[in-house]
Each structure stands twice: as C-alpha cells, then as structure tokens.
Amino acid sequence: MDVKEMLKHVDHTQLQAFCTWEDIEKLCKEAIEFETASVCIPPSYVKMVHKNFGEKLNICTVIGFPLGYQVTAAKVTEVEEALKQGCNEIDMVVNITDVKNGLYGKVEEEIRAVKKACGNHILKVIIETCYLTEEEKIAMCKAVTNAGADYIKTSTGFGTGGATIEDVKLFREHIGPNVKIKAAGGVSTLQDLESFLSLGCDRIGTSRAVGLCKGELTKGY
Fold this sequence. Notes:
Order of helices and strands: HEHEHEHEHHEHEHEHEH
Number of helices: 10
Oligomer: single chain
C-alpha cells in the first residue's frame, strides 16, 4: 500500500490538553494537503475548525474522553452539541468502570444511546484495551456490535498502552460484520501504519502519520 493510500485511512489527531489554535490549524492544513480521512480534535475546537475550514475537512471529535466515566446523559449531550457545531464523526470512550464491574449490558445500552444521538454520523467506540482482560475485550466486541456502533477502537492514546496486533486479531474474531476497526495509540512508524491496515483496520488514529510521511521525526499520540 502506498503512502497516499495509507493516509486516506488516518484520523489525523491532536488531543493534547494544552493544544493551541496554532496546533489545530496546522493539523487541519496538513489533513487537507495530505487528504487524511479526518481530523480528530477536542470538542472545544469543533466550531472554530468548521468555521475556518468548512467542508474541506471531515471533523471528528471525542466524547467522554479520556476516562469514560461520565454519565450517559452527559455523553449524549456532548454528542448533540458536537454535531450542532459541525462535527461529522464521534469517538466515544466506554465507561471502563462499568466494564471492570462486569456490567456489560449497561455499557451496551450506553453505546446504543450515544449511537442514537449520532444518527447517521459515524460512531467509533473506544474500549481502552490496556485496562481490559481478554474476556472483557470480547464482551466489548459483542456490546459494540449489538449496540449498532460503526467502529471499535483500541485506545485513547492516554492510557498505559496503545494498539497491538494481538488485540486487532481478537477484534476480528469477535466483532460483527458491520463493525470496522480503528487502531490508535502508539502507531509510531510507517511500518506500524502498514501493519495495522494489512490486518484489516479501516482507520488509524495518530498524530504522527503526516510527519512520518514527510520524513520527520515525530512524537505524540
């Protein structure tokens, strides 16, 4: 797969707590130039990005980020506001505490509620694999599938670990046919990018891809 094709699967990401408008503007201009799948940005920047770049960009934002333990009503409200302000795709974090307590049905209902708020917009569900057992990961594959979400996503990039080949293979075994995979966190080389795409990931979340393709040494999510 050539570099241009790989970038079409990248959610070009800037989610640092201290990111400035200058950082976000640079991200957006790179996304337009290199034709990435989207920009993934903090909710507080959605309105400004939409105002400045309009239909040139596919805007993605995060909900319940990065810890996931907001109540469902808060997550739904976050989604509604993001869509009003011009967002097209939503990446939500599951309530990891509910997962750890074995409340898989509750997690599924929350995903379903968030997907209902998203309507026809894409919903990606972050399960934060670094905190979960294999049994819990499989349960989340089922919850994401049953709730009608569009993607299962490995990681926030802010946990103790990111995407792994083993987790992507596990997802492939247990998600339904209508669910796609997004790998995120720790995708730090072009080889990583190509490997995850070859395994069947449809999206990659990273801040590094454009810099890597430009031959730069990069740091980040």
